[in-house]
Amino acid sequence: MCGTSYLRVALVLLVLPVAAQAQDATDELGQQVYTKWCAHCHGEEGDGNGVAASRLKPLPRDFTSGKYKIRMTTTGNIPTDQDLTDAIRRGLYGTSMPAFTAAYLSDAEVAAVVGYIKSFSDWFEDPERQNPETITIPDPPPYDPEAARTTGRQVYEETGCARCHGELGRGDGPSAPTLVDDWGNNIKVADLTMPWTFRGGGTRRDIFRSMSTGFYGTPMPGFHDNLGATPEESQQRMWAIVDYMLSLAGGPMEEGETPYANVLRSVPFGDEIDLENAELFAEAPPATFPLFGQIVEPGRNFYPSAVAVTAQAVHSESEIAFRLTWNDMRAETGGTNGPDLIAPKWDEHLAEIGQAGAASGDTDEGGDFWGEEATEDDEGGDFWGAEEEEAADEGGGDFWGEEAAEEDADGDDFWGEEDGAEEAPLSGTLDTEFSDAFALQFPLQKPEGVRQPYFLFGDAQNPVDLWFVDLAKPSKTVRYQGRGSAAMSPAEGGEDVEVVAGYDQGEWSVIFKRKRKSRGGLSFDEDSFLPIAFSVWDGFNRERGNKRGLSSWYQVYVEPSERPSPVGPMVRAGATVLGLELLFIALVRRRKGKKNS
Amino acid sequence: MNWWIILAVVAVMLAARWRKAGMLAWAVAWLLGMWVAMRYGFVVPVPASVIKIYMGIVVLSLIAYVLTDKDRIAEFWGPIEAFVTEPRYRLLLAATVLLIPAAVAYQIYAGMTAIPNAPFFARTVHPAPPDSITVHGSELALGTADNPYRELEETSPEEFEQRLENGRKIYFQNCFYCHGDLMGGAGMYAHALNPIPTNFQDPGTIAMFREAFLFWRISKGAPGLPEEGGPWQSAMPAWESFLTEEEMWDVIIFLYDFTDYKPRAVEMH
Questions:
Q1: Which of B222, B235, B247 sits opposite A360 (nearest CB)?
Q2: What's residue A190's pLDDT?
């Protein structure tokens, strides 16, 4: 016995240093991986304060807190290693967090960096927090639109989902504008009509998990086993609410289906386009186009509000109408907006005075001016909040007017502001300085060949025709001729554009109508493709001028109202080929007969 | 290349040779084999117009090959004549005679009812740079210019490290929205852009260029592209309106460091 004990001790003595060495190697690998791939967003110290953080919403995770949104563990718990691995491998949809596939990180590297990330928070060492309760996701029953409409809807209402997510899931609930996370940052509620943007993924299993465990660190609670009297009933009701959410998005996406389109089809609609006709767009196929923040030119918009716009189009013999819809947490119908107004822009004036470099240098000194100072400054001063009209009044376009805005308590970009607990009107419409606005963009002339105007409001040689509506004056279109965002002028001549717009339950809807033919301008001829692009301004986010959400060029195809029947050409071609064949056979047979005789 | 497809085509051709297939079968095998190889043999699809031209050449060569020899003509024609004249093929002949006009009619139907494709602009992804550019008032000859800070790697590694760090910061405050956190061209805005952002991890992008080429693309952006590059549709900003020359050279250092690629050196003649 003694002998074996000695042997054991000897073995342990031998193995321990080897194990410790292996652990050191893993730690070192974890740190290397972290420094190369993670630190620029999550910070060298893991506090979520990397160099990119100030230009990101949602902000990078603060690893020192131990709170993680996407987990299989129940509310209040640390995540499992597998949860962290999944987040790294899959990425977080709709954010800058990428999917680190095997092409970038090996399994060993992911495992090492998971260990390193955990080392930032002592929660992972805390004995009381070990072995957290995890959920299991049962095999999903088939998608059930009926249960969704009845049970799902009922649970959605009973649970109070609409308070934040809105009656129709458009992210417009009365509490939506007041939401903050545990770090005091304003956060945007998920738009349930776009599951492909859900951070934790938009499959039924993903939604089941998010609903069960909640998003720790945010107001989104977990409802694990909490939706019914028994766990079984809770699970059943959970699937019903998952399906209800997907029904708000038009049902689950098919394998390989993408949410976005490239072409908008305008379909023929009777003789008269009546904007009051509720059925006008009933048969028009919707096409959804993605938007991105205008970060190409000065006046950059790093946190655009609108993610996508859905378009429909119909035309008659003489007219064409476009219907555009997008979701907006709240309608801003006061104040003004315009494509030619100067955006709250800090970077542009830095560039203009040749200080862009110096500005970047400033960020080294801890004060990052993009979002950081805003989030640190309780008084709410913010460079975004330049009251450019005041600045223009005071100093004839003096960009240093921005500094005044620092002391302006109202001058915040909503998403960049820390103090979101500030009382705000809860829903409906709001009188603000910055109104919501929308613009549809076409080339001023039909493009020759493939050459289009520059997609950002045109260029000097190739102007665009901008159909702009300031939603504070929703019945009036202002047309601009754009030769670049610095050269916008009111359009001269051309066809008038009619517009009606309305806001309902979190959705803006704008309908434009114009004559199809234009003398000297762009004509919407049948059977033709024309470039089309979109801009959305959210007044709540203080978007204006170049600070907006916009799209690349897409195409609108005006379908012909009458297609020539293919029967005639088909019969003619078929008969001709048949005749030639018979002739051929006859000739060959005749030749063969001659040869034989 | 899809090597399995190419191998399968070669195998069929070899089998046909080995079985001593007749001239007609041999010609058909060539025609089909070349089409399959063109259509499915390449990972990046070959444009339909190119396939058409290529198949035209194949047909002409086959005609020339058959017509230059009397025996080949006879061997080619024999089976056709037999099929058209011999009673045992009667049913098959009738079916063929009807099927061909039906296929032609269907082609016409499909062509007339399909929604046409949107006009497509085949842009030149890496167009030739101009001889020189002027950035912030100073002129740069792109043929000979090099990254002025590259030599620091040898002469002053510490300063080089600082520039690298500055480049990293600039990248992760400006570029990553489109080119992505992994430099794979899949940033959070990439799905909304046409053309898609350049993938720096691809060996066919920055690894092929000199740093001066990158400096041109970064400083002048989409608006500085020649027409063949589609300056109207790319969302690449002209970074000279946001960054200093130094910052642009720094971010170039970071691009190569992060991807482990080396810039091409200036070729001395």
A1: B247
A2: 95
Report the pLDDT value the prediction gives residue A343, as an integer from 0 to 100.
66
ipTM tops 0.95? no
What's the token pair of residue B73? 């003509």
pLDDT-based confidence at residue A407 (cuts at 50, 70, 90): very low
Selecting from A55, A451, A551 the residue whose C-beta is nearest the C-beta of B192 gives: A551
Q: How far is B156 from chain A (nearest CA, A)?
A: 21
Which CATH number characterizes residue A89's domain?
Answer: 1.10.760.10
Domain membership flag for residue A256: no
Q: Are residues A115 and A222 in the same domain?
A: no
Number of domains in chain A: 4
Closest-CA residue of chain B to A569: B108
Say whether B100 and A577 touch across the interface (CB within 8 A).
Answer: yes
Domain B132-259 -> CATH class: mainly alpha
Task: Report yes or no: A315 and A558 within 8 Å, Cβ to Cβ.
Answer: yes
Chain A residues within an 8 Å CB radius of B101: 573-575, 577-578, 581
- Please report, for chain B, the start and end positions of each structural domain, with discontinuous segments joined by +: 3-113, 132-259
My answer on whether A323 and A437 are in the same domain is yes
**pLDDT, tens digit, 9 for 90 and up, residues A306-331:** 999 999 999 999 999 999 999 999 99
My answer on whether A468 and A553 are in the same domain is: yes
pLDDT tens per residue across span A330-347 = 999 988 999 988 765 444
* Nearby residues of B109 by Cβ (< 8 Å), 6 or more positions away: A566, A570
Q: Closest by alpha carbon to A143, among A286, A250, A233, A231?
A: A250
Domain that residue A391 falls in: 347-406
Residue A287 lies in a domain: yes
Final residue of a structural domain among A66, A99, A129: A129
Best of A199, A296, A590 to disrupt the B interface by mutation (most B CBs within 10 Å)?
A: A296
Share of chain B above pLDDT 70, in %: 99
> Are B168 and A40 a contacting pair at CB < 8 A?
yes
The predicted pLDDT at position A14 comes to 65
Per the CB < 8 Å rule, is A96 touching B113?
no
pLDDT of residue A357: 42
User: Which helix (DSSP H) or strand (DSSP E) does residue A581 occupy?
Assistant: helix A567-596
Burial of residue B242 (CB within 10 Å: 0-12, 13-18, 19+) is buried
Cβ pairs A/B, distance under 8 A: 169
What local confidence, expressed as pLDDT, does residue A418 receive? 41
Comparing CB atoms, the residue among B101, B112, B180 nearest residue A578 is B101
- Is there a single domain that holds both residue A88 and residue A224? no
C-alpha distances (whole Å) from A264 to each of B53, B121, B191 are 33, 18, 17
